[in-house]
Amino acid sequence: MLAESAAGVLEQVFKHGRVLDRELDTIFRENPKWGKRDRNFVAETAFEVTRWRRALAFLAGDDSIPALCAAQWTRVGLEVPDWWASHPSEIAARELELAGQPLAIRESIPDWLDVLGRGELGEAWDREVAALNRRAPVFLRVNTIRAEVRGVLEWLASHGIEAARVPGVPDALVLPAGKMLPKPLAAEGVVEIQDAGSQKIAPLLDVEPGMRVIDACAGAGGKALHLAALMQGRGEIVAMDISTAKLSELRRRASRAGTRIIRTETWREDTLKRYAGWADRVLIDAPCSGLGTLRRQPDLKWRLTASSLEKTKRLQRRMLDHYPELLRPGGKFVYATCSLLPSENGGQIRNLVERDPRRAIEEELTVSPAETGWDGFFAARLG
Ligand SMILES: C[S@@+](CC[C@H](N)C(=O)[O-])C[C@H]1O[C@@H](n2cnc3c(N)ncnc32)[C@H](O)[C@@H]1O
Q1: What's the gap in Å between 220 CA and the centre of ligand 1?
Q2: What does the record give as the active site (predicted)?
């Protein structure tokens, strides 16, 4: 039953392009009697088979979902049930052969993406892809509106969790592998779950208390909440997005976090006009390929296509052409993505500066998963 459920989730992800996290949420809601171990088994099978799809197909000599699952279970030392459709043999011997396969098979990425990534990043691509296949730890951002980092560290230690600070990211803590965040802390808005790489973006805006800030692609508000904390509860943040559902989640999180300076606006035809020249700072946290977050969303790599990527880049370019109009004269904006591809990152920024000589790059930041062990990000501040 559990094995079949995991295979069912994978079928939705591989055959119908569905989002892995959402499929897991749905199946957990439909099976409220499953205990923690049951849920872990289903989630782990679905995640690891998605992450290692091509490597497992090589080991099993078959790319059907039952064969991929059986190879995954064998690989981690679990028994494959007698009645299961596929029982791969000689996996240990094939592991040795796998090591000699090309990167796209060994590290399980689509061929077209491998060609593109190597073309853009050269040899660094191999290191980044390998880093993106490691499991990601849980990072927290201490909400400095509600607590201090030291206090949270002590609270966690008193609950048996030895969290650690993250060098270079002042409000970040990392939990030991396999540890989850105790519920009360999350529920009270004392901490937010936010990757250390993502925590590098808001400080780049160089905000001050009292400023007017627009987060033009705010989503559910990871970075908007961070900006509110950096502004120490003074000023105004307008969180915009095309998704009303995400903005309502943002409002829920903002009230939990104890910030009152964020208001939300769903993008409409006249939004740009109404807010033109209003902001001291604008954050354009643009939709992107998401390649920097593959550790947490390995299904992305199977959904992404060359044409969807081109479409996303055209959207990024349009945003760069128009969203800076939200700034008052002398204001600054930050363009950010969670991609590793220069064509979505520095390439977009340099093209903008070429076509609009009023813009100049002040600071640029690239977060490499291979170098940091964090998700991958890019950000640039322009005046
Ligand atoms: C990278 S995500 C934002 C993540 C968010 N800033 C955070 O820190 O949690 C990009 C967001 O852009 C939104 N989006 C897509 N098209 C947009 C558009 N034309 N204008 C503004 N936002 C858009 C998406 O709904 C999505 O929430």
Answers
A1: 9
A2: 338 (nucleophile)
Measured in degrees and rounded to the nearest 5, phi and psi for residue 275 equal -105, 5
> Does residue 228 sit in the same domain as residue 95?
no
Q: Are residues 328 and 212 in the same domain?
A: yes
Residues with CB under 6 A from ligand 1: 216-223, 241-243, 246, 267, 285, 287
Tell whether residue 195 is among the known ligand binding residues: no
Tell me, in angstroms, the distance from the centre of ligand 1 to residue 285's CA: 6
Between CA 128 and CA 107 the distance in angstroms is 11
User: How many Å apart are CA 16 and CA 38, to the nearest integer?
Assistant: 24
Rg (CA), the chain: 22
CATH number of the domain bearing residue 187: 3.30.70.1170
Rounded to an integer, what is the distance from CA 205 to the centroid of its chain? 20
**Is the per-residue pLDDT at 187 higher than 80?**
no
Q: What is the DSSP letter of 235?
A: S
Residue 58 lies in a domain: yes
Per the annotation, does 241 bind a ligand?
A: yes
* Final residue belonging to a domain, choices 193, 221, 237: 193
- Domain check: are 168 and 300 in the same one? no
Q: Which residues pair with 316 in a beta bridge?
A: none
What's the mean pLDDT in 363-373? 97
Would you please indicate which residues are annotated as catalytic (active-site) residues?
Answer: 338
For the CA of 226, the closest atom of ligand 1 is 8
State how many domains the chain has: 3
Q: What is the pLDDT of residue 178?
A: 81
Atom of ligand 1 nearest to the CA of 223: 8
Residues 150 and 72 in one domain: no
- CB count within 10 Å of CB 372 equals 19
Task: Name, in order, each residue with C-beta under 8 angstroms of 178's C-beta and a sequence gap of 6 or more.
Answer: none
Q: Give the position, in ligand 1's atom list, of the atom nearest the Cα of 220.
A: 9
> Residues 247-274: pLDDT tens digits?
999 999 999 999 999 999 999 999 999 9
Q: Please choose from 194, 217, 230, 339 the residue to mutate so as to test ligand 1's pocket, defined by most ligand atoms within 8 A of CB.
A: 217
Which of 124, 159, 193 finishes a domain? 193
